[in-house]
Amino acid sequence: MSETVRTHARVRASELVGRNWLNTGGKSLDLEALRGKIVLLDFWTFCCINCLHVLDELRPLEQQYSDVLVTVGVHSPKFEHEADPVALAAAVERYEIHHPVLDDPELDTWKAYTARAWPTLVVIDPEGYIVAHLSGEGHADGLAVLIPELIAEHEAKGTLHRGSGPYVAPEATSGTLRFPGKALFLPPGRGSASLAGTADGGSPAGAPANAAAEKGSWLVTDTGHHRLVELGTDFDTVLATFGSGTKGYADGPAAGDTASAQFNEPQGLVLLPEDVAAKAGYDVVIADSVNHRLRGLSLTDGKASTLAGNGIQRLLETGPARVDEEGAGFSGSLGNDPLDVALSSPWDVVWSRKLNAVVVAMAGTHQIFSFDPLTGAVSIIAGNGLEGLLDGPAHEAWFAQSSGLAEDADGNIWVADSETSALRKLVIADDASITVESAVGKGLFDFGFRDGPAAEARLQHPLGVTVLPDGSVAVADTYNGAVRRYDPASGTVSTLARGLAEPSDVIVDHTQSAGSEPLLVVVEANKHQLVYVPIPKEAQQVDEGASQTHRPKSPVAPGALELTVRFTAPTGQKLDDRWGDPTQLKISSTPPELLVSGGGTSVGLLRTLELSPDVLEGVLHITARAAACDGPETEDGEIPDHAACHLYQQDWGIPVVLQADGDTELVLDLRGMD
Fold first, then answer.
1. Measured distance CA(350)–CA(463) in Å, rounded
2. Which stretches of the chain score pLDDT less than 70?
3. Contact (CB, 8 A) for 307 and 285
4. pLDDT at 458
5. Which stretch of DSSP H or E encloses residue 413?
6. Whole-angstrom Cα distance, residue 396 to residue 384?
7. What pLDDT shows up at residue 199?
8. Distance between CA 623 and CA 315 in Å, rounded?
9. Neighbours of 534 (CB within 10 A)
10. At what angle do helices 49-64 and 140-157 cross, to 10 degrees?
11. 10 Å Cβ neighbour count for 608?
């Protein structure tokens, strides 16, 4: 039988140490101030898509148990930019985090709780003892069992204190846009000028709006307001809005003040070719990221519809193993009903002339999908779902939170691969086979601000990409606050603009609205605006160095290393062994020479690795997954038919240093206790 993930040992929680507190009204918190509450520490970093998923998973629990549960976000940065307190405050507002956040830039609290991955959750009982240590996402169901157990136990002991928590809401940012995500140019005749009704704010959508739209317009995902806004080429005139502005999910009328359609942090958007749009019945495809859906928008009648996605976050669904023994992932069609397919944080979309389909950056699963607007077919076209940087055949390639897409003149797709700080390319052959190449980027923990030869150049968490008129590629280098340029002809990287506030997208503007030369349009997310940026004749050369994410290195001995990943299914769940062992490990290393044996993919959560004595340090890449299903066991011990099932998964990058007196075993918690 399953049992709750709790320890029988009494482990005292460590004090919460950091630079500053957010969402507390300027007050500092400590464990003594939280005594009597169930405390949930959420170790996160704002670049991490898995961390953003966990924020949404926890919201219902926070609301249900608001009088006894206090969530504390411990922000432990991966990238240098994330250690900036101003950037962190913006992220806390952007993601509507309604609990206290501890700024932990030196990883003091991270190290005290032996966190090894983002996200990590630690549960502390009302007496100040650790009762659970969880890695990855998908733990909401288990917490929904554990929290009532703790409530009952500590009410009986008299150690539970009900009442309001320490959260104090910050002052909200106001303006037409709030943390905009992506933008799309609408040529004259393709915008909403013909829509009847009113423009934003109730003013008639008449002659002034039509006159502004004669130059074309810009459709922007107003991500923080959960809507889309159509702007004139002055970036000031509002021509139309789409979506009610209330976070949620609803199809239907989307235009103007009477809109009932709802979005949840929409991101990328693409305008379909006119002939395709006429047949499909909508003009724009939108990556509705937190709803885990693709949405359609008709600019002729202002209606929103759902094109693909069942609303279930894909990593929370069980399914085929993500990789086989050779590391190849599933590719191909995901079924005939697009509304029955689970997606995961679609972040950007682009039309592919070669594939005759919308290409989707599926950030949550580290893969690239496609969607055919005419047939509804949804397919995985690249990426085996493992997080990292690995080129080659599409079904063997690794991506890491791909967030920006652009098609070049040859029909290939450029990818801003944010978590590897890389610029990648899908090379699409005439037979539609795909090979993945990397132009800039080294690995999951390598970043910086360095121009020059592409092999040595560094970016920092890029979110957008576009192809320039000369065939070179511009990148919204988000955490460096810059627009960078990669020249495929010379294999070099340069800088086009600096001093931008988290640019999340970049697009070439050919309208000559601000002069005779083509300009760049940059979505400046943290200044809540779109801006024109000239394409300089002479690009800058910047070298502020290359960096790596600095986390504590685990001392390990050369030779045999016994790896154990602990997993205990929550109360009411059982490991799903109906088709064999439901657990899996995928292991590799950087450099590859670090791992003499024990790499690859196989079932089970125990593995003996052999580490080379000739390598001084490196990173072990470990992916663990386990599938468990709901419901009481039948008399024969089997899981009932039609039981709801859950996938637990975490990717770790464990920095190690080899020394003779180092550890000979490594224990990680997927769902267990330190």
1. 14
2. 1-9, 174, 193-213, 315-331, 512-516, 548, 550, 579, 631-642, 672-674
3. yes
4. 97
5. strand 413-417
6. 6
7. 43
8. 13
9. 13
10. 40
11. 11
